[in-house]
Amino acid sequence: MTEDAPSDVRIWDSVNTVCDLVAETAWERLRSEPELLCLHAAAVNFDGRLVVFPNARRAGKSTLAIALARLGRQLYTDDFLPVRIDASNQTCLGIANGAPPRIRLPVPKDFSDAFHAWVGQDRGPSNRQYKYLLDAQIAPHGETLPLGAMVVLDRQDDPVEPVLAPMAREDALESLISQNFARTRHAGAILKSIDVITRHLPIYRLSYHSGEAAAEYLSGHSDLKSLPATRFAELAQDDRQAPLNQIGQSTPEFAAVRQYVQATNVTETQAGNDSFLADGTGLAIFRLNPVSTAIWRLLGEPTDLDEVVSLLAAAFPDVPADQITTDCEQLMRGLAEARLILPVASKVAAQ
Question: Of 73, 96, 61, 51, which Cα lies nearest the Cα of 202?
């Protein structure tokens, strides 16, 4: 055994094997149908519409979705949701993956005895970390339902009553972008799709502590009842593929003395005072705050770093000049490395 070898041999049991198989199934779905948007999210049937819970680290999406399933809600997925964008019918359909949900063990102590007994009696396989629940109400593989609402989870460490409140669209955009893993789709196509989704669907933030209490709260919440059939009027088919062979290529050097201008094939979405930009390569999406957005607007015409700094210094006279210079250079350098701006002499469509 070498010094770098682990001290303990890792043993894979049947549950680990199923975990890997489910993950590989998700990736294969995207490889075979690259036009799909795919979200790291749970999704539950609320009276014929899918309520989608985008993932955030340790937010409890799977446990919450399972708690909703225990209350009789049909579970579409507790982990990943393929979404078919149908521009001709102006619909966004979530696709059931048919996989049984997986709950993390141990079940939270504050859950009811009835919930603990329900998990314990399920015939699914388990190990020390997880248990698959085979007796939950699961939608058949390939079944589809229209998206009805998005609920972003904000789990609190301290006990609080669950509260569902409208969420700022720019924050919802960032949440969905960060939870998308359709790597073969062009970032501009992803941004356009998520832009339309967040403009048409109701978007909420759920603050909660207990997943079981939150499930009971959501199951009877008036805002999630009789969700309308949404038509995504501005939805356009966009099957551009990201050129994955460009991953890892060297980034352009930024030269502070040169003039720069916006690249010609950047996809942009405005949400509140923020802007979201997809670079021309189709590999990444960037969020700009209001000040960064103002600088981005300046770069609609050939502009160098000194001009940007001068305008920002006039707008913010109380901010130290060296801080403005450092912040502006950092932003412009980042935009240049992302090929969102190009030196004026070589303004061409980013390849």
Answer: 51
